[in-house]
Amino acid sequence: MSNLFWNSLSRRRFLGVTSLAIGAAALGTKAKVMEALASSVADGTAVQSIRNVFTSCGMCVNKCGVIARVRNGVIEKLDPNPHFIKSRGMLCARGNAGLDMVYSPDRLKYPLIRTGERGSGQFRRASWDEALDLVAKNLNELAEKYTRAGTMFVSTEGFQEHFFTTFAECYGSPNTLRHPTLCLSSNIQGFSATFGTNPTPDVLNADYILMSGANRSEALLTPDSIDMITGEGGKRKIVYLDPRFTKTAAKADEWYPIKPGTDMAFILGMIHVIVTESLYDKTWVETNTVGMEQLIPHIQPYTPEWAEAECEVPATDIRRIAREFAAAAPKAVYYQGRRSSFFDNDTQMRRAMAILNVLAANWDRPGGMVPNSKVKLEGHDYLAPWYEDVPERLEKGDVAYLSNKDGSWKYFRDRVLEGTPYPVKGMMIYKQNPLVSVPNRAKTLAMMEQMEFICTIDITMNDTAWYSDVVLPESTYLERDDPIESLGGILPVVTTRNAVIPAMYESKSNLWIMQQLAKRLSGEIFESFNFTMEEYRHHQLKGKPQIAEALELKGVYYPKTTPTYGKFDGKRLKTRSGKIEIYSAKYAKKGLDPLPVYTAPEEVPQGKFRLILGRNAYFTHGTTAHNALLDDIVAENTLWLNTREAKRMGLKHGQMVRVKSPLAEEQLRLQVTQKIRPDCVYLSHGYGVLNKKQQLLQGKGGSDAALVEDKVEPISGNVAMHQTFVEISAA
Amino acid sequence: MERIVACITVLLFSVIFTVSAMAAEGGNPKKGKYLWKKNCKVCHVAGEEGGVLSPSTKTQKSWDRFFTKNKHKKKPEAWGKFSEKDLKDIQQYMYDHAMDSDQPETCG
Amino acid sequence: MKKRRLAIVLDTRKCIDCKACTVACKTENKIPLGRETYRNWVSEGPLRGEYPNLGQSYTPGQCMQCANTPCDRVCPTRATWVNDDGIVVVEDRKCIGCKYCMTACPYNARYYNEETGAVDKCTFCIQRVAVGEIPACVETCPTKVRVFGDLNDPESEVSELLARHPYRVLKPEIGTEPFLFYLM
Amino acid sequence: MPKRLKISPKWLFFSLLTCGVIAGLAAAGYVFWVGHSEAYNVTREIPWGILISTYVFFVVCCSGLCLVSSLGHVFGVTQFEQISKRAILLAIITMLVGFGTIAMEINHPIRMAIWVVLSPNFSSPIWWMGALYGGYLVILCLEFYALMKDRHGMASTLGLLGFVMAMAASSNLGGVFGLLEARPFWYGAFLPLYLILTALVSGGALLALIVYFNHRTRGLPFHEGERSFMDALGRLQALFVGLLAFFLIWKVITGLYGRPPQGYEAMMALINGPLSLPFWLFEVLLGLLVPLVFLLRRQSRTPQGVALAGGCSLIGMFFMRYDMVVAGQLVPMRVDVGEQAGTWLAYTPSVTEVVIVLGALSACLLLYSIAEQRLDLSSTHT
Q: Fewer CB within 10 A of the terminal residue: chain D, N end or C end?
C-alpha cells in the first residue's frame, strides 16, 4: 500500500510534509526553528533523529561527494562534501535535486509485466519471484534458440553497472552495448592513438585554454568546470569555439562562432603557424615523439588563410591565437572536451587536437595534458563459464577500433535490423535509455519491435521501459550500498555510496537483481555473484585500511592533494612506438590517415538548417528531465534560431514550430536568439518522450533522437550527431 | 560521394585486417580469457607465487615473444597442462588486451 | 557578545548560471515546487552586442537584507523585522498575506508560500547559521561566487574583500542599504 | 396553454443581482477550496491584481460619497441635504463590499484582525489604512443612525468628523502606493492628492446616479428644485472631472518627460502597451471625455445627462483603479531572462477574480436596492 500513499501525496505536499515536520518539532515559526536548533546545540540534545551520511552523487557521471542529511528517516537535504577534492566541494543543481529521484511519485515501485501491446503502457504488478522467473525463462529460451549471443545487454555507467556487464559475460553474450559510441569514443580514440591514453587537461594550472564546443559552464565536469572559472586567473586566457554563444562563451575571453565540423581546419591552421614559424620545443618533440618529419610537409597546405575559408575564423586571429598558444606553452592546452559525437571526421579532428597539444610540449606538465592517476583497488574476480559455439560480437569488424565492452550503437543496431550475421532477439537494459539517447529513434523502435523479449532495469518509467516486456525497479543511488569506486584523474579519489535510507517500495539494488537472475540461470553463474556487498567492498579494500578509514571519516580518500607531473618521463607509453605518435603507424597500417587530413563537412542546403545538439546545466542526458526540482528551472527544450533568420522567415519568439528532418518531424517552441549561427538550429536533449507515464514530460518539447540521422564516425564507431539538416516552419 | 568511398575503403581495410590478424594468430580470445582466468590467475594475483600479471602488463610484441620463446620458463610445469590450442587461445587474449593493443579505453 | 552584521559578497564574474544555489535553497528551506517560488535566483543580464560580438553576465541574488528595510517598514503587523544579525526575518504566524512587502521590495525577493501560509524570503539559511554553518547557496556553489560572513568582524573574509575591491550594491538610488555586495 | 409568465423588470433586476452575488460567493468558496495561487492570476511580480483595484474603487467611492454629501449637512449646502441618508447608506455599503473584496485578496483576514491589534506597525500605511477606514466605518454608521433618528446636531458633528476621516483615509490609501520607493510610478505625493480628487469624482457620480434612479424607479418627476440640484451637481462634477483631466495630463507628462526609469515604462504600458485599451477607451474616453462633454454643454446638463455622465465616470473610475494598480507593477523589478526580457510583465485577471469582482458589484447594488425597499431614506427636509 505504500505506493498508494505516495500517489495520494502531490509533489508539493511532499515537501510540505517535511516542512510541517520541522515546523511542528521546532514549535512553529522559522525564528523558533533557529532558537530550537541553537538550544539543541547548546545543551547537546537533539530534538529529533538527524543523521548525516557520506555518499556519492548519482545524477550524472561526475560522482561528486555528497553529505545527505536524514531527518526522521526522510532525506532532507543533499549537501556537498567539502572534503571531496574532485568536485572541489560543490554540488550542482542536479546534485541538489537528487531528492526528487527518491521521492518522485512517478518512480518505479514494483516489478511490472506487460499485459497490453508493446508501447501501450499496459503493465501489471508482479512479484519479484514471478518477474525474475520470467526473465530467466526467456534468457534460457533465447540462448536455446539463438545462441547466447542472441541477447544484447545494454547499459550505461554507474557504480553497479559492473554487475550487469559481469552478468552478461557469465550468461555468455559478447553483445554488451554501452554509451561511449554516443559520446566520447572518437575523443578517446584520437587522443589514445597519439598518447596511448586519453589524458586530462590540467585546467587549474593552464595559462591558455582553447576549447571546441566543450561547453563546460553547462555540461558540467568536475573539476574542470570549476577550475575553468576559479583557476589562477591572472594570466589565464580562454578561447572558445562554438556555433552557439553558450554560458561558456559568456565566460571566455574570446568566442568564435565557428562553422560546425570545421574545427580541424582551425587546428591545422594553428599547427601550420606553429610549425612554419618554429614556435615549438624542438628538442622535446625530438626526444618524446615520432612523426614530426611527416607532419612538417603534411601541414604545408593548411595555411591560416586556407583555414579561414573553411572555418570562418579570420586568418589573423588564427595566427595570433597560434602564437599566443605557443608562447604560453607548455602551460597551454587544447581542451578536448568529452562528448565528441559531432561529425564523421571526429577521430581525426581529435588527433589534430592532440598533435597541437604535442607541439605545446604540455604532456605530463603543469597546465598541460596529464595522464590520469588512479588508486588501485582489489578487483572482483569472477569466472564466466565457457560456452561453445557462441559467435563473436555482432558488429565485429564494422569499426576500425571497436571496443569489445562498449560496442558501437549505430553499427550494432543496423546489424540487428538486418539480422546478419545472426539474429539478436533478446534485450536486457540497465540504466540506459536508448529511445532517448540514440539517434534515429525509429530504428531503435524497429529494433525493439523485432525483439522477442525486452527487460529493463531502471528507476523511472522512461521510454525504453515503456516499450519493455518486464520492468524491474532499481533502488536509487541514495538507497543503495555501492561498491568502492576509484575515480581517476589528475588528483584521483576513492569514493563509495552508502544507503542514505532503506530502499523504498519494492525497489532493489542491481546487485540483488543480478544475483537473483544468476541463481535462476545456473549454479556456475551464481558462483560469480555469491557475495554480499559488504564482502565485496571488504575485498576491494584488502590491505588498504587507510582508504576504509578515510571513507568512514571524510567520505572520500585521496592519496595526494597536489598533482604529480612527469611520472611518465622516460617511461614507455601505451603506443606501438612507446612514444607520443604524431604520425600513427598503426593507422597507416589499417589504411587510415596516419596524419589528420581535412575533409570539409557537407554544406547546409538552401532553405535548411544544420541541427546541433547540446546540454544545459540542469539536466543529464535523458535521465533527469523528469525531475520536479529541475523542471522548475527548465520545463522543456526549445528550438534556437538566429534572430536574423527568424525575422526573415517571419517567425516569432515563443511560437510553436515544426522541425522536419529526413527522419521525422517534431514540434517545439521557438527561441529566437542572437546566440546561434544563422545556419544552425539547436535543441537540447531529452524531451519529446513517447511514454505516457512521466507526468512532467508529457507534451513537452521535441525529441532530438527522433530527428537526428544515424551518421557515424567509422574509426571509433561513434555516432555523428551534427550532420542532420532540418527545415523549420510555423506550426 | 568521395567520403562514402573513403568510409567504405576504411571499413574494408579494417575488416580485412581483423580477419587476417585472426588468421595469423588463430586463437579464440574469449576462450583464452576463460582459460587464463580459470588456470593462470590463481598464481598471478597479488601475494601469490606468480605475482600480479594481466594482459596489459606487456606489449603485444612481448606477449608474442613470451609465447614463442620464453614459454613460461620460470615454471614450465604450469605450461604443460595446456593443449596447443589452449595456448593459442590464451596468447590471442593476451595479445588483444596488451598494453599497446587496439582495445580502446572506456568510460565509467 | 558583539552584534554581528551578516552579509554576502558576490563575485559575479565567476557565475556560470548553473542554478545550483536555487535548487539547494529550495531543498534546504522546503520551498514549495513551482517556478515562482524561490528565495534566490540567477538573473541573465541583457545580451550585449550583436552577433557575432556578444557578451552576457549572470547575476545571482536573493534578499539583500537591507539596513533601511522597506518590507519591515510597510508590514502592518510587524511580521517581518531585522534581527540582531542583520537578517530580515518573517514570523509566519503574524503574516496576514497582504503582500504589501512584496510590492515594497525593490528586488522582488519575496514570494507567498502557500505551505507556510506566509510571505517567505531568504534568511541566509538562519537555521544553518544558528549552528555555525554557512547558507546552502554559499556552500553548494561550484565556483564559489558567494562569500558569507560578518561585516562587524574586520578580520572576516567579507570585510577583507570589501576593503580590497571596489563593489556595488543593487539599486543604490532607492536607498535600501543592501547587505549583498557585488564585486566589480 | 400554460400560464404566461410575467417577468417584471424589478424581478429581473433582483434575480440578476442575486445570481451575481451567488456567483461571487461560489467563486469565494472555490478560492477557499483550492487556495489563492490556484484561483488567482496574481504572481510574485504582480502580487496585487483586480481585487485590490476593486477594493480601492469601492472604498474611494465611499470616501467620495461622504465628501460630496457633506456639502449638504456639514457645510449647509441645502440642495445636497436631500440625499444625505442615501449617500451615507451607500457609503457604508461600498465600504463593506470593499472590505469583503480585500478580504478575498488577503490570505489571512482573521490573522489580520488579531495582529493589527496585538502587533501594530505605525509606520505601515496599510495599518493606517485599516485604522482609518475602520474608524471611518464606525463614524458612518453612527452618522447614518443620527440621520435616521433625525438627530441633526449629532449628524453634523459626525459628518464633519467623517469628512476629515474621508480625506485622511483616501489620501492615506494613496499613500499606501505613494510611499513605495521601489515603485517609481506610484512613489510621491501625487497619488494621495489624486485619490482625494478621484474620491470627489466618484462621489459626485454616485450621487447623480442615486438621485436619478430614485426618481426613475419610483416614477417621480423632476421638479424645478431637483433639476437645479442636478444642474449644480453637474457643474460641480464638471469641475472635478476637469481637474482630474489636468491631474492625468500632468501625470502622463511627468511619466514621459525625460523618460524617468521605470516610471516611463509603466506610463507606456498605459499609453501604448498592455493597458492601453482600458486606459484610452475606459479611463480617458468614457471616464473623462464623455462626461466632460455632457457636463459642460448646458443642453445636456439635464438630470439624465448628469446621471449618464456619472455612470460613465464611474465605469472610467473602475478601470482607472485597475490601470493605476497594475501599471505600477508591470515593470519588472529585476530582469531575469536576458535576451528574452520584455518591457512588461503580464497580468490578466483569472475568471475567479473577475467573478468575485462582479459578485462584489452585484452585492453592492443589491444591498443598496434592498435598503431602498426596506428603509425610508427620503429626506425629512424636502
A: N
